[in-house]
Design a protein that fits this description.
Length: 200
């Protein structure tokens, strides 16, 4: 039987050193790998924080831009409404001024019709004048202009202009005795007040 060779103590020591060195290399590799993982995680956290800050900055700018845009839009809408309202008021004033000039002609026609002849050639002329007067009244109504019905109202300084205040047994105090000049409304606004005599 062959004898087994015993390994020398130096050789065993050397093998143990190599084994330990291999373990140290493995451990240092594992430690290095863990350290890289920790660093990667720390970098990911830093990147996340930077991205979050950048996102917050962009969101803040967007919110400011949106608020500014909405304010500008509201301002423009208000401006447009104001311009439309001013244009309507201006048009109404111009229309009222023009129509007041026609009311003077209508007054003359009404005065002429108060003493209209009932017979002969004058009666035919009166019919023509009456037709013209009705056409004018129709045109005024198309422009939303209506007579103030002063004959059925009590005196109102907002709608009537009194030229005299007289005692009257036939009328209550403040009643309108006579209309000297017709008044007109344009919509809800007085275009021209009615000129009247009022009972005391």
């Amino acid at each position: 039987m062959a004898k087994q060779k015993k390994s020398s103590p130096k050789k065993e020591e050397h093998l143990q050193d190599e084994s330990m060195a291999a373990e140290v290399v493995v451990e240092s590799t594992e430690l290095g790998s863990e350290k890289e993982n920790v660093q990667a995680q720390e970098q990911a956290v830093d990147d996340h924080d930077e991205l979050r800050k950048a996102y917050d900055d962009v969101k803040k700018q967007l919110d400011e831009s949106t608020d500014g845009w909405q304010r500008e839009r509201a301002d423009f809408s208000n401006y447009k409404k104001r311009v439309d309202r001013d244009r309507d008021v201006q048009r109404s004033i111009i229309t009222a001024d023009l129509l007041k000039k026609f009311l003077v002609v209508l007054d003359d026609l009404e005065r002429a019709m108060k003493n209209r002849p009932q017979q002969g050639e004058g009666a035919a002329w009166a019919e023509g004048i009456d037709l013209v007067m009705r056409k004018m009244l129709g045109l005024l109504e198309m422009e939303d202009i209506k007579r103030i019905p002063a004959e059925v109202e009590l005196f109102d300084p907002n709608r009537h202009e009194a030229v005299s205040s007289e005692p009257s047994e036939d009328h209550e105090s403040g009643a309108i005795i006579e209309i000297l000049q017709q008044g007109y409304m344009i919509g809800d606004r007085v275009l021209r007040p009615a000129v009247v005599r009022v009972a005391q």
